[in-house]
Write a structure and sequence with these properties.
Layout lengths: L7 H14 L3 E12 L14 E2 L5 E5 L6 H21 L4 E2 L13 E8 L16 H14 L3 H4 L19 E5 L5 E4 L10 E3 L8 H15 L1
Parallel strand pairs: 6-7
Antiparallel strand pairs: 1-3, 1-4, 1-5, 2-3, 5-8, 7-8
Length: 223
């Protein structure tokens, strides 16, 4: 379990040091979902593409993949701030809360992850058409530590409504699978070099540094 006496920054540094000792480099990307309260939402002026999501006036922005973990965390925070500010300038309100509408999909912070060695090789790529032990142990650690970290992934009461119901867009069980968006850990369809896992549990209004620390903790626990 993540120890509360650690500050998130110190904890992240400790976790990254553990990866380094194992000759492993985590590479992550993020997807941030939100709603806009205007039918003209698609006109939101940002420097990066905005993609439509499943909900009415729900959208998503993505970061690139990087091993600069602190840089990625700052990117997530900056994007949320830019979306909020630009929305207000255009007389709209951006809503990152986990479940703004009971009849619409919730907002998630999806974290995509793979591990590389010092040569930059993706260690989650299948061997002989089978998942590597590193991939399977990573998933096992994430699943076994998920329950104890739910207050990090879903820090507010209403967040838990996101996991209820029959929606196939939100995770409802601690499990993993292929192209299944109701699984907590999903293995997206991708080209060979981009093989990765997608952690789908965290809500969009959670703390990105705490979420990433919990994910890294789970992966290291499994390994």
């Amino acid at each position: 379990m993540i120890l509360p006496e650690y500050t998130p920054t110190k904890l992240l540094a400790n976790l990254l040091d553990q990866f380094k000792q194992l000759d492993l480099i985590p590479v992550i990307g993020a997807e941030i979902e939100f709603y806009l309260n205007s039918p003209d939402a698609y006109k939101l002026e940002l420097a990066i593409p905005i993609e439509e999501e499943k909900g009415d006036n729900q959208f998503e922005v993505k970061t690139d993949y990087s091993s600069d973990i602190l840089g990625q965390i700052q990117k997530i925070l900056t994007l949320k701030e830019q979306i909020t500010t630009q929305s207000l300038k255009q007389r709209m309100v951006a809503d990152f809360s986990a479940k703004p509408f009971l009849d619409q999909p919730g907002n998630a912070l999806h974290i995509h992850l793979h591990l590389e060695n010092s040569k930059g090789e993706n260690l989650y790529i299948k061997k002989n058409d089978k998942e590597t032990k590193l991939m399977l142990h990573s998933i096992a650690g994430l699943c076994s530590s998920m329950e104890e970290h739910m207050l990090i992934f879903a820090p507010y009461d209403k967040a838990y409504l996101r996991y209820k119901g029959d929606s196939v867009e939100s995770p409802s069980k601690i499990c993993w699978g292929g192209n299944n968006r109701s699984a907590a850990i999903r293995i997206p369809l991708s080209d060979k070099g981009n093989r990765r896992l997608e952690h789908r549990v965290a809500c969009s209004d959670s703390s990105p540094i705490e979420v990433i620390c919990a994910i890294f903790y789970g992966v290291l626990k499994g390994i």
